[in-house]
Amino acid sequence: MKNSTAIFYMIFSVIAFSFMNAVVKYLNGFSAYQIVFFRSIGTLLFVIPLIVKAKIPILGNNKKLLFLRGFFGVISLTCFFQSLNYLSLGTAVSLRYTSPIFAAIFALFLLKEKIKPIQWFLFLIAFLGVLIIKGFGGDVNSLGVIFAILSALFLGLIFIVIRKLGDSENPLVIINYFMILAFSFGGIMSIKYWKTPNLVEWLLLLSLGFFGYVGQLYMTKSLQSSETNIVVPLKYLEVVFMIVIGAFWFDEMYNLWTLLGVFLIMFGLLYNIYLKRKKTQ
């Protein structure tokens, strides 16, 4: 039952992050720093009142790990948004979602979580599915690839830090550390690149914080509820949700190669979950 709840939390998180990515794609005329700034300020409008209302100690217990989570989060988020300046959204998202592989490697060494050879094979199948869906065109920029891979690496570290924190910290405190650091960094860096939004853009920019808050909250709850290797691979589902959003919002078309990629992702993820659940029974 605990694993089932964690899986539900992660899927709900993925849906929220998918909507956030779609809005970022629509707002590609703004700098990465300004997007980071609005991503943080919108979330803080939700988090801080909830922390105050619940009388939760805002500094938390493990300040070192909380700071690391926030620091890694700012690097990962900024690198991802920067990669969109050089890569298509599909290529950037595909590269970023190598993060479960980094997380699995970090979990193996830092958390001593064992991974069977067949599970490594299933990770590979899921990742190949991501590549088939989005593919790599001839215009792939090397700097953009570096930014996207760095984002994935630090996202993998985030999964480990949250897992290490376990139930010792309230999810709101974990999110608050991340958002305070992102607010400070994004705000300072965006001064030079500031673009004044119109009314619709204001609403969309602020919605980044809402979707980000929901996604962050339930991702944190998921990672606190189960082993990293059970829930982290579900992050791949974001690519699938992006296909649906792309089709209805951006009128994107998907061919049989895309459907094959979806099948490989679902097969790799679901069979990996089946193996992990079978092991824990």
Largest sheet: none
Gyration radius, in Å: 18 Å
Straight-line N-to-C gap: 11 Å
What overall form do the CA principal axes indicate? Answer: globular
Low-confidence runs: none
Chain-averaged pLDDT: 81
| Proportion of strand residues | under 5%
Structure notes:
The chain has 281 residues and is mostly helical. The protein has one domain (2-114, 138-226). 79% of the residues lie in helices and 0% in strands. It has 12 helices and no strands. Helix 1 (2-26) runs antiparallel to helix 9 (199-225) and helix 3 packs across helix 8 (171-190). It is globular and about 50 Å long. It starts with a helix and ends with a helix. The model has no long low-confidence stretch (mean pLDDT 81).
Concise synopsis of the structure shown:
This protein is an all-alpha fold. The chain contains twelve helices and no strands.
Lay out the secondary structure.
Elements: H1 2-26, H2 32-54, H3 63-83, H4 89-96, H5 99-111, H6 117-134, H7 142-165, H8 171-190, H9 199-225, H10 228-231, H11 237-249, H12 256-280
Please name the defining characteristics of this protein.
281 residues
